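anyone seen this seq b4? input:
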Amino acid sequence: MTLDLLIQLKQIAKSAPESVLEQIARHDSYEKPEGTAKHLRQLIYLIHERDCELDWETMSWYPHEAISLASYKKRDVDVFAVSIALLLIFDLCAGEDSDAMESMLGKLSDNYISSYQELPDRYREPILAGVEMLRSRWPDELH
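predicted toks r here
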């Protein structure tokens, strides 16, 4: 993995306005307002204090669950791109021998590739590069 790619993916998340982060936080539909607020606090902490690097021990639900659920919202371009960028960072940083969840496994199919190709330029190239790295890491998962 190139450091430049990781920096580009992190920049997608770091440049997201708080309104996009609020939308991501709302995707855990089982949560009451206080749960959504906790997702948002943890999401802001993840991006700005932890440099987008997830701690699986303390962040596997807040904010990971909301990020994962938001990554299915292909029609909301900013929410989709920020969520996918964060999931890519998690999996790329975890390494091949990690016990961490593989957040992107279901999002490497050709169906998703077409969604990534439709993203605006500022998102498309780093996301596609990250996806290709994971596809080469997990070739058996693409069938």
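The mean pLDDT is 89. Residues 3-138 form one domain. kinda curious what u guys think
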